[in-house]
Design brief:
Layout (H helix, E strand, L loop, with lengths): L2 H10 L4 H13 L16 E3 L2 E3 L3 E3 L10 H4 L6 E7 L12 E4 L4 E4 L8 H9 L7 E5 L8 H12 L5 E5 L14 H16 L7 E5 L5 H13 L4 E4 L19 E4 L3 H15 L5 E4 L5 H10 L3 E4 L2 H5 L3 H15 L5 H4 L4 H4 L1
Parallel strand pairs: 3-4, 3-13, 4-7, 7-8, 8-9, 9-10, 10-12, 12-13
Antiparallel strand pairs: 1-2, 5-6, 6-11
Helix pairs in contact: 5-6, 6-7, 7-8, 8-9, 9-11
Length: 352
């Protein structure tokens, strides 16, 4: 992190977190953020569910909810980016305040509730993007929808022609009863509708599923079974947690999903358990608490074919993404891996 980025973060941290986030996006669109371009090497280049990635370090959904900064984010150094979540109709989300920094814990609590401009507006922005690194969309459901399962398919139908992948997000804790869609029967029906909608798209894009870290062993086993039988292309493990274990910050008791450093161990254990249950039948994407190259490397060795990050950038800036990618190359070389794929799952047993 250079001096200007450090100063910018210090200024943003004096503001309300949601206001700061909005200003960060504006600064990014204005060209006031690091833009080293693609970070890649023969060792870092990899594939994920048919997507060709320059490196396995992706941006998690939630940073660019409305797909307003795709050109700029594509130049930061990520290997792929995910925007959204998008719902069929625009919605304001939950009342403010709904975003809280837990600086002592290097964490964040959010309860946004899928605030976004709606699928039509987001589709128009996606349609205008230029070729580059893979871009995906997190699919969501309107809070007042009479058929939330249908909402996911509807967003895919609207935005799918302009995407490289799409993620079914039934794991956000901030929309009432949304996580109930992770149940075996409900999830199977929802994914069947999404996969049917995919057949009508001009291109057969990969479909991912994003899961909660707060699942029991039997619930995770059910999800693994449904994921394989539904023929989805990958699972993202994991979303935010409702757990509040071992936190120090005064803001720790706010309701919402916790992300950041405290989530790392829990999400990585979920990832490793899922890797065992799926037995290599579909790729996994590791998310949750990644704040260093070593964290990203640990996720890969626990079973992830690629990783995503977001919260750590609140504290370390956008330059964290290319730094993780470059140092990941070094860590792979140190341990004798010629490719990312060679390292996937090599220490999964350690986390189970």
């Amino acid at each position: 992190m250079n001096l200007s980025e450090r100063a910018g973060l210090a200024l943003l941290h004096r503001l309300d977190p949601e206001t700061a986030h909005g200003l960060a996006l504006r600064a990014l669109r204005a060209g006031l953020a690091p833009s080293p371009g693609p970070v890649s090497s023969p060792r870092l280049a990899t594939s994920l569910a048919g997507l060709v990635l320059p490196n396995p370090v992706g941006l998690a959904a939630g940073f660019d909810k409305n797909a307003t900064a795709i050109p700029q984010l594509s130049r930061v150094g990520f290997g792929f980016i995910e925007v959204g979540a998008a719902t069929p109709r625009p919605q304001q989300g939950n009342p403010r305040p709904r975003l809280f920094r837990l600086a002592e814990d290097r964490a964040v609590i959010n309860r946004f509730g899928f605030n976004n401009d709606g699928a039509q507006a987001i589709a128009a922005r996606l349609a205008a993007r230029l070729p580059g690194i893979p871009v995906g969309l997190n699919l969501g459901a309107n809070k007042d929808s009479p058929d939330r399962a249908r909402d996911f398919a509807d967003v895919l139908a609207i935005c799918g022609p302009h995407l490289d992948f799409a993620t079914v997000n039934v794991s956000s804790p901030n929309t009432e009863k949304l996580r109930e869609l992770q149940g075996k029967a409900a999830l199977a029906a929802l994914l069947a509708g999404v996969m049917e909608t995919r057949q009508s798209l001009p291109r057969k894009i990969p479909i991912f599923l994003k899961i909660s870290p707060d699942l029991s062993e039997s619930e995770l086993s059910d999800i693994a079974e449904v994921a394989i039988s539904s023929a989805i292309d990958a699972v993202i493990a994991t979303n935010t947690t409702l757990s509040r274990e071992c936190l120090k910050s005064a803001s720790k008791d706010h309701s919402g999903g916790l992300s950041g450093t405290p989530l790392f161990e829990k999400s990585t254990r979920t990832l490793a358990r899922l890797s065992h249950m799926t037995a290599g039948k579909l790729p996994l994407i590791g998310v949750g608490g990644i704040a260093s190259p070593e964290d990203a490397y640990a996720k890969i060795r626990a079973g992830a074919s690629a990783v995503q990050l977001y919260t750590a950038m609140v504290y370390q800036g956008l330059s964290l993404a290319p730094r993780i990618a470059r140092d990941l190359d070094r860590l792979l070389a140190r341990d004798g891996f010629a490719t990312v794929a060679e390292a996937v799952g090599t220490e999964a047993e350690k986390w189970r």
